[in-house]
Amino acid sequence: MAEEGIDVLVVAGNPWRSDYLRFAADITPVEGHAFAFIQCEGPARIIVEHPAEAARLRSEQAELDVRWSLSAIEETETAIRELGKRRIAIAPLAAVPYRLAMGRLVASIGPATALLDRLMLRKSPSEIAAFRRAAVLADEGYAVFREAARVGRPEYALVAEVEAFFRSRGCPENFQILGSGGREVRGMHPPTERRLAPGDLVTTELTPCVDGYYAQICRTLVLGEPSEAQQRAYAVYDEALTAGIAAVRPGATAGDVARAQNEVFRRHGLGDYVTSEYTRVRGHGLGLYVDGRPALLEDVDLNLEPDMTLIVHPNTYHPEVGYFVHGDSVRVISDGCEVVTRTPRRLLSVPLA
Amino acid sequence: MRRGLISWSRDEVPPSVLEGRVARLQEQMRNADLGAMLIYTSFARPSAVAWLTHFVPYWNEALLVVFPTGAPVLLAAFSKRVHDWIRSVSHVGEVRSAPDLGRAAAAFLKEHPPQPSRVGVLELDALPWPVAEPLVKSEYGRGLVDATGLFAAIRQPADEVEIRLARRAATIAVQAFKTIPREAKRASELLSVLERSARLDGAEEVLPRLAPDLRANATLRRLEGDALLGERYAVELSVAYKATWVRITRCVSNQGVPPSWRGAAERFVETAERLNEANLSLGPQLGPGKPVAWTLETCRGSPPLSIVATGETPSPSALSGGSLACISLQLDLDDGAWLGGAPLILGSRGQPSCLLI
Prior knowledge:
The structure holds two protein chains of two kinds.
Chain A: E1 8-13, H1 19-25, E2 34-39, E3 45-48, H2 51-60, E4 65-68, H3 72-82, E5 88-91, H4 98-101, H5 106-121, H6 125-148, H7 155-168, E6 173-181, E7 201-210, E8 213-214, E9 217-223, H8 228-247, H9 254-267, E10 283-285, E11 292-295, E12 309-312, E13 316-318, E14 322-324, E15 328-333, E16 336-339, E17 348-350
Parallel strand pairs in A: 1-5, 3-4, 9-17
Antiparallel strand pairs in A: 1-2, 2-3, 6-7, 7-8, 7-9, 10-11, 10-12, 12-15, 13-14, 15-16
Helix pairs in contact in A: 6-7, 8-9
Chain B: H1 15-31, E1 36-42, H2 47-53, E2 61-66, E3 73-76, H3 83-89, E4 94-97, H4 101-111, E5 119-121, H5 129-136, E6 144-146, H6 148-155, H7 160-178, H8 187-200, E7 205-211, E8 232-241, E9 244-253, H9 259-274, E10 290-298, E11 306-310, E12 324-333, E13 336-345, E14 354-355
Parallel strand pairs in B: 1-5, 3-4, 5-6
Antiparallel strand pairs in B: 1-2, 2-3, 7-8, 8-9, 10-11, 10-12, 12-13, 13-14
Helix pairs in contact in B: 1-6, 4-5, 7-8
């Protein structure tokens, strides 16, 4: 902040975009808007919009100056005005509300967001340690998922088992979507009432959070013996994941990692299936947000640097077998990357009996 | 992130009910000379769009565009691949791909010019700037008006469908409380069984907060990691079932229920039932036991629950009889803190409120 000439940085957040608040003030809002006033020295001042949230944050960090207001945005606007002529900036772009952006701070949103993004991209040793712990939990959670995936069970029961496991390990957050079925399945979604059937491909993306940091794993299993088509499809995704991971190193771009994965699909005549019609990204950053920067897409030229944390996942639709996912969390190191999730990479099969 | 069951049962939430809600909004829009209304939805603020369409975003964001006539259009920043899923769980006229939501909304309004040109925005002050900026800079920028009050005017009282969903959510929470092991020693043990029970019962979401040792601290916390449970602890469960949220708080003692708690629970029920639309400013009228804190919350915008009245604010906002609300109360008893909370249907003037559990 001092280098950028900022006296007070106002960080906005909410239960979905809590990452910047967690980074700047170590708070995680559960309900409503929250704003943190960060100065170069001294504890943060926090404004939330629920008395229970205020009490909770005070109990978590006694040194914080926490107040609440039915209109946290209006209260924040007043607090900004009271700062007078000090040099104030507001971020992040994704969470700054209209009312606070309509004033004199609008020009500060871009640079202040970029400042935080730079700081959040490369992880410190303690952040890496939390990421590793989350990766261990992701592996363990996937084992629970695999155990829960049985013919006749509804999709939401699988998630219930995984969430119960995570809670038993003190994990308060997890982002999980899944899919089940065959060629008709085009993606993943929150769990439905659909009951698993023999021959289904069951996909999941599982993303537990430890001390605020997310790690992710993507795997696909088959209920019963995999068909030849499923085996063939798996081989393509495994080759793509291997190629993607091999491309992760300092100096490579996010686009290089996406391209390495997509080239595998193109070589196998599946180039159509790496377009936006069938897939979103070939991976993304991980950290305090579940879908962080950079997006692994061929046109993203952000350079990878040591201690960035990512998921590499060539997840997409396969015309013979349906939607298929396969991915691991990695940390960029000086000569490549370290894969931190350890669940074996193979087409997992769950016995029908 | 929404991790539980998201599905649309036409029996529980008939399309005609959703269409009726949209029609009420459209009537208000016509009365207010609004040519369109924009309603933002995200994981953090899902409730207004869910009430109108049954759509709940499990991540990402969307903007519902409602014109004075016709079915609403959902501009969704989700991949096209998810559109079939969106259609399967919601009742909208059209789902459009809108990766850049603000620009897409501005373009959509240009393509479908609102008549009149005034465009209402629910909670305009809170609209995320990346969505708001292209709208502000569009030809409709000067016509953007806040329509929070307009929406709130039709949002409550609750209809029978919403009350049934709230009862189901409350039942899920009560059932989960029954699974608490008598000799639970750690918060992780407790939260694990609550989570499992609620999600197996079909909860769309469950947010637990816990005061692990009531004798030490009665603040309800979001736990990361674990904590030892004291002899007495309190659990608050906020449960969503098909986009309807309730909040229920229970105290637990592993030495049997103290007599003081029985009295507190009775007074909680009496207090809650005495509340009505005309006496909210009085707050809970209790016998023994000093109220330390209380809140009455309801849903009348995009947040699942927001404050109507609290012990810390002198004047409550108005809430009409028949509204679905949640009351939470903390008492300071001779032998320590006691917390309770439950959903209710607020009584009309002179009429008692009705607790849902």
